[in-house]
Structure formats: structure tokens, C-alpha cells
Write a structure and sequence with these properties.
Elements (H helix, E strand, L loop, with lengths): L1 H26 L9 E5 L3 E5 L7 E11 L8 H5 E2 L1 E8 L5 E8 L4 E8 L3 E9 L10 E7 L1 H4 L15 E5 L2 E4 L16 E3 L24 E4 L5 E8 L1 E6 L4 E7 L8 E12 L2 H11 L18
Antiparallel strand pairs: 1-2, 2-3, 3-4, 3-9, 5-6, 6-7, 7-8, 8-17, 9-16, 10-11, 10-13, 12-15, 13-14, 14-17, 15-16
């Protein structure tokens, strides 16, 4: 009878442990441990997935393009874009760590380590030029699609419908796009809006309407459709902030060209967190001290009616 009693005791302990585990999982708030996972699809689509996220997934064209300088007034295809090929190297079993390799037409190789956390995704890039000639790869863009997140699915025909949800930092304030004046209207390609920081020549950014306004720092983002969540993104070093025509936002990364044998390291971040502007700015200040963002944040402007 002893083996039977031991077996029963073992079953009771197992059931108790299982019950505690299920209860703990039920009590975990959205956005905590193991909430975000990654997926990759050729040619270069990154998916950030989480059951708690509005729309369940954030789609990123990663990386959409590597670009030459002199791009503000240039033809996008004939001059600016340097063709590249993306290769999936590995994805961890828990879909938390993704490794990619981009090979540019001019020989530059960029290795990516993308890591999903509890309230965001970390990007670590190593770009190297093994060739004998200087690379013209000056900047690159990760195109983050936000239609579902902001409550404006891609089926809608008004591509500016999500703009009231979007923001950047102007005059030390999280400023929604409808409050940004002036709003540039003319460029080689329209619509859209580009903001160029002080450290980048205004001749080297996206050929969409270029705002005369200079953002305070390198953070750009959006509120979710129900205003409960925030998306934001930043890179170091960064080239520009950009609002595109596919309900997308960019904080585009800067390469600055690579000499023969040169290696550069770049880092980026996507934040996906509860809608707390002060907490977001505090996180950003810690993650990107080079940008020296102000820690004093005024209340975000309300959604226009």
C-alpha cells in the first residue's frame, strides 16, 4: 500500500503546483513576463506579437531600405536606395531573440540581434565594411505599421486618419500631430512629413515634405485606439523622424557611410507600454542618454474631436 499512498501524495502535490501556476498566469497583468514574441518573414518583415497589444501584432518593414546621402531632393529608386538582401540566421525557441544579417549591394554586412522584452523590443546592430571601397550607406529605415494599433485598420482609404494618435516632442511637450504647425505640404513626393534633427544636414533625409520645425529629441510614437497603450521608437545614432503613407512612423537610424574595414554599432528600441507619457520619457532618457531629452514632460495634448 505504501507505493499507492506515495503516488496519491505525488498527484496531490502535482495538482496543487499546477493550480498555483495557472492562478499565477491568470493574475499576471498584460504586458508582463513573456508577453512579446518575434516572428520574421522574407524578404524583410518583422512581427512583434502580444495577445495584450491592440491588434495583437505590430508589423515592421525591417529594414525597408538602406539609403545614400543627398536624398531630400533625389529620386528614391535611381539615387537613394541601396539594394540589400536579408537573411534569417536564427530565432530562439521561445521566439524572444532573433538574429538577422543584411548584405548590401556594395558589400556592407549588417548583423542584427533583436530581443523582445516585457514592454518593448531591443535592437543591436553591427555594421561592417569588408570591402576595399567606401560604402555610401548613410542611413536606413525601419517602417513600423500602426493602423491596427491606433484603431485605423488598413482597409480604410484615408491614410491620414491615424495622425491624431501620433506624437513627437516639441517645446518640451508630447505634441500630437494635428497640433503641429506649420505642417509642410510640398516635396518631391507627397504626402507625409519629415523632421530633421540639428545634427543631420537637411539635404540627407526622406524626400517627403520637410518640416521647418526641429524636434527636441529622437523619440516618435503613437497612442492606441483606446488610449490605453503607447508605442514609441528611437535609435542611436538617428537620422530623422518621419510619418509615412502606410499609417507608419519612423525613427530612422544613421550609418554615416563606412570606410574600408570600418565597423559601427547602432542600437534601437521600440516601446510598447501602458499610456504613461512621463514613464515613457523617463525610460527613454535612461536608454538614450546621448539624446539628453528633458525629464520634465508636460501633459500630452488630448485627442482632437
Amino acid at each position: 500500500m505504501f507505493p499507492v499512498r506515495s503516488s496519491n501524495r505525488f498527484r496531490r502535490r502535482s495538482l496543487w503546483s499546477l493550480s498555483l501556476g495557472l492562478l499565477a498566469a491568470m493574475l499576471l497583468p498584460a504586458g508582463t513576463a513573456d508577453a512579446l514574441t518575434l516572428r520574421f518573414k522574407a524578404p524583410h518583415w518583422l512581427y512583434i506579437e502580444g495577445e495584450h497589444l491592440p491588434g495583437k501584432v505590430i508589423e515592421v518593414n525591417y529594414l525597408e531600405a538602406y539609403c545614400r546621402a543627398g536624398s531630400t531632393e533625389a529620386d528614391w529608386v535611381k539615387h537613394t536606395v541601396i539594394p540589400h538582401r536579408a537573411e534569417l540566421l536564427s530565432l530562439s525557441a521561445d521566439r524572444k531573440v532573433l538574429k538577422l544579417r543584411d548584405t548590401l549591394e556594395d558589400g556592407v554586412v549588417v548583423d542584427h540581434t533583436v530581443t523582445a522584452g516585457t514592454d518593448g523590443v531591443d535592437f543591436r546592430l553591427v555594421a561592417r565594411n569588408p570591402g576595399p571601397k567606401r560604402s555610401e550607406a548613410h542611413w536606413a529605415q525601419a517602417c513600423v505599421r500602426l493602423g491596427e494599433f491606433t484603431g485605423y485598420p488598413a482597409t480604410g482609404t484615408n491614410l491620414d486618419d491615424y495622425l491624431p494618435k501620433c506624437f513627437l516632442i516639441l517645446s518640451n511637450r508630447i505634441t500630437r500631430f494635428p497640433d503641429i504647425q506649420p505642417w509642410a505640404k510640398t516635396a518631391r513626393y507627397v504626402p507625409g512629413q519629415t523632421w530633421c534633427p540639428r545634427h543631420v544636414p537637411r539635404t540627407d533625409v526622406n524626400p517627403r515634405p520637410l518640416s521647418p520645425l526641429v524636434p527636441d529629441d529622437g523619440l516618435i510614437g503613437a497612442f492606441s485606439g483606446d488610449e490605453r497603450w503607447m508605442f514609441a521608437t528611437a535609435w542611436e545614432p538617428y537620422q530623422e523622424l518621419f510619418q509615412g503613407v502606410i499609417r507608419c512612423l519612423h525613427s530612422d537610424l544613421r550609418l554615416g557611410g563606412l570606410e574600408p574595414g570600418e565597423t559601427k554599432r547602432i542600437r534601437g528600441r521600440i516601446y510598447l507600454m501602458k499610456a504613461d507619457p512621463e514613464a515613457l520619457r523617463d525610460r527613454y532618457a535612461r536608454d538614450f542618454p546621448e539624446h539628453r531629452p528633458s525629464r520634465i514632460v508636460r501633459k500630452a495634448s488630448p485627442t482632437p474631436k
